């Protein structure tokens, strides 16, 4: 076995920053124990989707029964959004980051906004091709 085929051993570097970001879990409400512990983020997603589908159920989705628009669809959407990760982020944080990116100035110089006020005028004729030439 030659020396060039040997790989250097992999080194694992431990990163303990995840220790300090604890998930908030709800075990009981008003002294009544919940059937299963719930993450606070999941509860927030459910409340927002319930409000959205409550409004949609009373306006656009009037043909669906109330149990679908006020219970089943919000539970399903909450389950999907809680399991989904986009670029390692939760969907609402990914959308927030994309909105910030779309609103941010795209012309930057050393991370500061760059104003482009000069108008360029060519003093000579600019030559360009309109057809491809075959040689």
Q: Unreliable segments (pLDDT under 50, ≥5 consecutive)? A: none
The first-to-last residue Cα distance is: 54 Å
- Main beta-sheet strand count, sense and barrel state: 2 strands, antiparallel
Principal-axes geometry comes out as extended
Q: Structural class per helix/strand content?
A: alpha+beta
Give the amount of beta strand, in percent.
Answer: 5-15%
What share of the residues lie within helices? 25-40%
Average pLDDT reading: 82
Order of helices and strands: EEHHHEE
How many helices? The count is 3
- Going across the biggest sheet, name each strand in turn: 1-2
Annotation, overall tally of beta strands: 4
CA radius of gyration is 28 Å
Task: Describe this protein with a few key phrases.
3 helices; 135 residues; two-stranded antiparallel ribbon; alpha+beta
Descriptive report:
- The protein is α+β, with helices and mostly antiparallel strands and 135 residues long.
- Helix 1 packs antiparallel against helix 2.
- It starts with 24 loop residues before the first strand and ends in a 22-residue tail after the last strand.
List the helices and strands and how they pair.
Blueprint: E1 25-29, E2 32-39, H1 40-59, H2 66-83, H3 91-103, E3 108-109, E4 112-113
Antiparallel strand pairs: 1-2, 3-4
Quick take:
It contains three helices and four strands; from the N terminus they run E-E-H-H-H-E-E.
């Amino acid at each position: 076995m030659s020396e060039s085929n040997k790989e250097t051993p992999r080194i694992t570097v431990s990163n303990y920053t995840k220790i300090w970001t604890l998930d908030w879990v709800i075990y009981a409400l008003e002294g009544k124990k919940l059937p299963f512990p719930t993450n606070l983020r999941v509860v927030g997603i459910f409340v927002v989707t319930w409000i959205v589908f409550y409004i949609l159920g009373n306006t656009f989705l009037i043909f669906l029964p109330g149990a679908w628009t006020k219970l089943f669809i919000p539970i399903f959407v909450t389950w999907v959004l809680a399991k989904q990760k986009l670029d390692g982020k939760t969907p609402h944080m990914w959308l927030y980051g994309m909105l910030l990116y779309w609103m941010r100035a795209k012309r930057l110089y050393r991370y500061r906004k760059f104003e482009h006020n000069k108008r360029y005028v060519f003093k000579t004729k600019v030559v360009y091709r309109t057809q491809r030439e075959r040689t």
